[in-house]
Amino acid sequence: MALLMPAFAYAQTAQNIINIVDIVALILNRMVGIFIIIALMWFIWGLYEYIESESKDPGKRKNGIERMVMGTVAFFVIVSIWGLVRFLQNSLGIQGSSSNLRNEEIPFVGGQVQR
After folding, report:
1. DSSP 55
2. Mutual orientation of helices 58-92 and 14-52 as an angle, nearest 10°?
3. Please, what's the b/e burial string for 92-108 (b: 16 or more CB within 10 A of its CB; e: otherwise)?
4. pLDDT tens per residue across span 53-62
5. How far is 78 from 32, CA to CA, in rounded Å?
6. Which residues pair with 112 in a beta bridge?
7. What is the DSSP secondary-structure string of 11-39?
8. E strands along 1-115, which residues?
9. Residue 79 main-chain phi, psi, to 5 deg
């Protein structure tokens, strides 16, 4: 609610909103990389379990295969969603962060920002 208060007073809100959106976009971009690393580590852990228990324990071998499959699926899902978001950004003309928006394009409670 505090973010909307400047809009009620017809104060400048566009820059604050852009800053918030930029921070959220930065956090989400970093999280994608972290999730990709986690999926890769999960796959490598499963591969290690599979190789280590080649002839010793069939239960660990099965667990290693399951980890590799889950890591592969997680990696595929993450990269697919990332690609879909990039495709939608390019289709809608939204390139990169929100700082590409001009103030005239940012709506607020009373209409659009007037310059």
Report:
1. S
2. 150
3. eeeeeeeeeeeeeebeb
4. 877 888 888 8
5. 7
6. 107
7. ---HHHHHHHHHHHHHHHHHHHHHHHHHH
8. 107-108, 111-112
9. -70, -35
Q: Would you state the torsion angle of the CA atoms of residues 34, 39, 45, 51, taken in this order, to the nearest 10 degrees?
A: -140
The model carries a pTM of 0.59
| 62/56 Cα distance (integer angstroms) | 12
DSSP state of 104: G
Radius of gyration of the CA atoms of the chain, in A:
23
For 93-105, the pLDDT digits (tens) are 776 654 454 555 5
Residue 111, phi then psi, degrees to nearest 5:
130, -135
Do residues 67 and 43 make contact, with C-beta atoms less than 8 angstroms apart?
yes
Domains of the chain, by residue range, sit at 33-97
Helix H or strand E segment including 51: helix 14-52
- pLDDT per position as a tens digit, 32-46: 889 999 999 999 999
Tokens coding 102: 């001009």
